[in-house]
Predict the structure.
Amino acid sequence: MGALPVGYLVSRVIGIDIRQRGSGNMGATNVLRAAGWGPAILTLVGDVAKGYAGAWIGSWVAPGRPAWAAAAVVLVVVGNCWPVFLGFRGGKGVATGLGAFLRLTPWALLPAALVWLALLASFRFVSLASICAVFGLPLAVRLLGYPGPAGAAAAAVAAIVIWRHAANIRRLLAGTEARFGQKDRPLEA
């Protein structure tokens, strides 16, 4: 389920190959820069929905066994990041992880969302906001008393999301990262 490339499909419908635009990423931020608000919102909603559905299926398969739901969360994010349908080149897992944790640990998303919003409003870097928000998610999961497997899933997803943002981190450090609201630019190396 996670391998369903929502951003790619949305952009193809409007005649764009999102892999050839901006960062080449299939996430909502790159779709926004390349195609506008409508396609970006469809991408965001689709990625969140597939994350939520993946976590729901994991909890449905084995009710009362949190390890199954936690494993499903990690797998749906892995599928999003490395989709088999597009040569294992996918998104960064943020929106899919949001949907998955909305199902698995909804209260832990509140502090993460506040961090994300505050950093985006202050600095206008979606990547920085996403990295910092996901970095604190495992701690929030633990402090709010969710089961151990949920904490392990949060740590795994945080590691994946941060790792997938390696190029963004390099651009942030170099001062070349695009800010939220910046238009499409040529494909980056």
Observations:
- The chain has a mean pLDDT of 94.
- The radius of gyration is 16 Å.
- The longest helix spans residues 37-61.
- Residues 100 and 106 are 9 Å apart (CA to CA).
